Amino acid sequence: MQPQQPSLAYRVAILTVVTAPLLGVLIAIRLLWQFAVSWTDITLLLVMYSLVALGVTVGFHRMLTHRSFTPHPVVKFILLVLGSMAFEGPALSWAATHIKHHAVSDREGDPHSPVDGFFHAHMGWLFTKQMEDPNVYCRHLVKDPIINFVSRTFLLWAGLSLVIPFAIGGWHGLIWGGLVRMFLTHHVTWSVNSVCHTFGKRPYETNDASRNEWIIGLLGFGEGWHNNHHAFPRSAFHGLRWWQFDLSGLLIAALEKLGLAKDVYRIPPDLMARRTAKTAALRGNQSAEQSSAEAPTIAAMTAAPLVTPAFND
Q1: What contacts 23, CB < 8 A, 6 or more positions away?
Q2: Nearest to 192 by CA among 261, 144, 241, 248
Q3: Are 173 and 166 in contact (CB under 8 A)?
Q4: Per-residue pLDDT tens for 218-242?
Q5: What is the pLDDT of residues 241-293, one digit of tens each?
Q6: How far apart are CA 196 and CA 205, in angstroms?
Q7: pLDDT score, position 162
Q8: What's the rounded Cα separation, in Å, for the pair 90 and 272?
Q9: Predicted confidence band at 309 (pLDDT cuts at 50, 70, 90)?
């Protein structure tokens, strides 16, 4: 089945959502140059970014898409609203697109793979096709009344994310807590699709190009440990080593301790051991195959007769 091509209105909407935050950043740079920035502006930026980013990482990603934990209904609603404020699409469409990404990661049909170009993976894919159909990829979520309601009222929550900073800080608040925050949230999220499938380390062998990138891990509140995530998609915790900072995982653990989340999925030790052993075995085989491929060349070089050049008097 051919993917549905986006309408002109959809392309215009995406272009607006992508360029408006950039315009806000340019204005913000000018304000910085003129020293016209207050602590209220910076505080709005940090608070709005943190809340909205956690709505995406904990709400849209780990809770909704991967069912890494079961939240209290009020917590579910708040997380979905915060995720909607990121201007990354309705909750159901976001989940459907991400589920398809995992199904065909870095293969034909992946919505945003660097295989089709780094820019395509980062943001170009937004202009080439619409988000995936929830009735195809996450029908089970469509039946949830809270998810359905928040998804249908997406524009309300997205708009509110601009109204709130404007109400607090006026036009400066709108620029820093609204547009600059949107710019940062978008590009950190998109960097998981592009950067974390191109640069970084691969502690686990997976059937895709996912990688761990510590910078995105910090900025994305744990989402940058992307190879860990693709190796154990359902895990509520992406940082699997003590030094892999994962603010999203810490929030989930806190919600669990407060009784606001249950069924938090942790990687069973035996599964972790099997995955680690499989990775070691695969890399051992790859190393052996590489050595075997190089051996004939080396043997031929050592077996070749030494030819001494003749010099004529």
Answers
A1: 179
A2: 248
A3: yes
A4: 999 999 999 999 999 999 999 999 9
A5: 999 999 999 999 999 999 999 999 999 999 999 999 999 998 887 666 665 55
A6: 14
A7: 97
A8: 34
A9: very low
Q: Where are the domains of the chain?
A: 8-267, 270-298
Residue 50 tokens read as 């943190």
Residue given tokens 């016209």 in the structure block: 36
Helix extents (H) in the chain: 8-33, 39-54, 73-84, 91-103, 118-119, 125-128, 134-137, 139-142, 145-152, 154-173, 181-194, 214-219, 226-231, 247-257, 269-303
Angle between helices 181-194 and 154-173 (to 10 degrees): 130
In contact, 275 and 204? CB cutoff 8 Å? yes
Amino acid at 134: P
Helix H or strand E segment including 42: helix 39-54
Q: Tell me, what amino acid is at 294?
A: E
- Of the chain, the percentage scoring pLDDT greater than 90 comes to 69
Return the bridge partners of 294, or none: none
pLDDT in tens, 153-174: 999 999 999 999 999 999 999 9
